[in-house]
Design a protein that fits this description.
Blueprint: H1 9-69, E1 78-82, E2 85-94, E3 97-105, E4 111-120, E5 122-124, E6 130-139, E7 144-146, E8 149-151, E9 155-162, E10 166-168, E11 174-180, E12 184-185, E13 188-190, E14 193-194, E15 198-200, E16 202-204, E17 207-208, E18 212-214, H2 228-240, E19 243-244, E20 250-252, E21 256-258, E22 261-263, E23 267-269, E24 274-277, E25 281-283, E26 287-289, E27 294-297, E28 306-310, E29 322-325, E30 328-330, E31 339-343, E32 357-360, E33 364-365, E34 367-378, E35 383-384, E36 386-394, E37 399-401, E38 409-411, E39 419-426
Parallel strand pairs: 6-8, 6-9, 6-36, 7-37, 8-10, 9-11, 10-12, 11-13, 11-14, 12-15, 13-16, 14-17, 15-18, 19-22, 20-23, 21-24, 22-25, 23-26, 24-27, 25-28, 26-29, 27-30, 28-31, 29-32, 30-33, 31-34, 32-34, 34-36, 35-37
Antiparallel strand pairs: 1-2, 2-3, 3-4, 4-39, 5-38
Length: about 425
Amino acid sequence: MKKFSNIPRSQGQAVITAVLLFLFGSLVIIAGIVTPIVKEIRGVRTLVESKQSYFAAEGSLEDVSLRLKQGNAVVSPQTLTLGGVAATTTIVDVFNGKSLATVAETESEVTRAISAVLIVGTGASFSFGVQSDVGGMLLENSSRVYGNVLSNGPIQGSGNSIGGDVISAGPSGFVSGIHATSSMYAHTIQNSTIDKDAYYQSISGSTVLRTSYPGSADQSTSSLPISDALVETWESVAASGGTISSPCPYVISSDTTIGPKKIACDLVVSGNPTVTFAGPIWVVGNVTFQNNPTIVAASSLGKNSAQIIADNPSDNLNSAIMDLNNGSFFGSGDPQSYIVFLSQNRSAEAGGSNVAITLQNSANGKLLLYAGRGEILIRNNVSLREVTGYKLHLQNSALVTYETGVINLNFSSGPSGSFSIDSWEEI
């Protein structure tokens, strides 16, 4: 038998080397293909878990917020589990509200966190630069308004300018002697200039620059923004800060921070002090500001406004009168914060002659006036942001310049004491 010679060792090693190189190259190629796929799978899994974590955090924060807004008891921390993801919400008391922080984490430690701030309070919506009840409004001399005007009574002037819509509501709606830079709505329009459209039943002695709509339906009357019940709640908050009973009248003539507080007699602010209001003030008597004080809402109020209330339940025909002479008025620093003077004097509503609030001389700034049952008189070189009353009277060069922030006016307390969302963001 013939024997075959063995394959040389060097050739065998070359074959083995070639196989190993092939295997190594194949592994490299396979690794190059598989690694991105694995990374993609991990990325997708992480993204899914991240979304699960986020939604769990949102759900927990919404659940706690709803419980707080409904007045239910909530312990801190509060844990909610959704789809195997645990979300824990921590509640911390802050000024005028609650600070909430929620952290949600999956089993593989994918974490998302969301925070929110809830504030206690209520709001009042002032959609008009000037608003009056059935007592109506009278503009004299060069007084003017930059903003829409609404009245449940007559609106009368002598060519005075109103920079917006003018509405005198109801079947007795009447406008006379007004120049409206926008449209005008009233049952009867007389001696007026309307830069846009006019809606009416009767018109005479007037100029309409765009379109007239005779036979238009009368506009519906509107209630004023602040109710007596809300005022009473503010008074309760003021009283919770303590009562000042003497000396009477209570005089502030130096820099002072005050509020919430009830003052059981007249209040006089005299000289040039800076008075900072940190909460509602209830004055059971008259309020007088003279000389040139600086009035500020405390920075701690944030978006909230500071209110000074004159209300004497035992005599709201001859008391609860506000006489504001000069002064500069500033909010807390937030654009939505104002100083609000509110009188519960009812003389005008009862047919009397007492003026609830008089603003005169050179008062100006972040200032609002409100007398839902009384008359407000504004005269001389004054400027304010909004005025609402049963009856309004503007004289001399008085100016009302409406700011859009007034439409969502916030206060630090309300009838329900409910929470509203101040901020909500991922952290």
